[in-house]
Amino acid sequence: MGKTVDPFWAAVASFGVDQLFVLPEWIKTKVAEEQIVIPEGIPGKMAALEEELSGCMKCPLGSTRKNIVFGEGNSEAGILVVGEGPGATEDETGRPFVGRSGKLLDKILASIDLNRENLFIANIVKCRPPNNRAPSSSESEICSKFLEQQIEIMKPGVIIALGASAARTLLNTRTGIGLLRGEFHSYMDTPVLVTYHPAALLRSPALKRPVWEDMKRLKSFMGEAGLPRESGEK
After folding, report:
1. Cis (ω within 30 of 0) for the bond into 43?
2. What domains, with CATH codes, occur in the chain?
3. pLDDT tens-digit profile of 120-130?
4. What is the distance, to the nearest Å, from the Cα of residue 219 to the centroid of all Cα atoms in its chain?
5. What is the pLDDT of residue 26?
6. Are 62 and 101 in contact, with CB atoms under 8 Å apart?
7. What is the pLDDT of residue 15?
8. What is the pLDDT of residues 61-91, one digit of tens each?
9. 127/68 Cα distance (integer angstroms)
């Protein structure tokens, strides 16, 4: 394979110049410009953000985690599910909602024809709080900046907030889920539907009925909004 010639140096050579004096600062700038790769499309921008997040130590959770759980799924589908934070299994695997709560969530989503190929799942905090405690207000505030960037990149058509921590952080409210669910709210001009966290259903099976009502409401909204989106669609 032939060597690629930079157009600038090719132009210099065409004038018969084989030596050229340039300032070191110019060379550094030229090299930096050639090394900058601007990610294209939603998946590329999400990958760049995930790389930026790797090794994050901006809050105390960074010192106790095993893996950062960035999120997974289809970032172009326009449907974003937001939970509280990783548990033990998620911390081990680096994947969101893969423990008991995750398996139940998969069943709940499947009831309205959703799966991890036509939505994206993330959390308020990307690292596991010790002993699965709720994230502190400072931890949520620090880490939610990354979630905010994810939302800005994905521009979802709807967000499903699972549990109190997700609802409180996204909606900046102390109102309980019982009062928040049943209608759509807004975050960054994006409709937000609040429902109970799957872990709550494991503790209190009676909550399955209101969650099913929320899912039916979500399914009706998706039909009206044309969700999930096809890849590349905005």
Report:
1. no
2. 41-225 (3.40.470.10)
3. 999 999 999 99
4. 21
5. 56
6. no
7. 60
8. 999 999 999 999 999 999 999 999 999 999 9
9. 5
Location of structure tokens 């700038």: 29
DSSP result, the chain: -PPPPPHHHHHHHHTT-------HHHHHHHHHHHH-----HHHHHHHHHHHHHTT--SSGGGGT-SS----EE-TTSSEEEEES---HHHHHHS-SS-SHHHHHHHHHHHTTT--TTSSEEEESSSSPPGGGPPPPHHHHHHHHHHHHHHHHHH--SEEEEEHHHHHHHHHT----HHHHTTSEEEETTEEEEEE--HHHHHH-GGGHHHHHHHHHHHHHHHHHHT-SPPTT--
For the stretch 154-178, pLDDT in tens is 999 999 999 999 999 999 999 999 9
Query: Residue 38 has which token pair?
Result: 């601007």
Whole-model pTM over 0.90: no
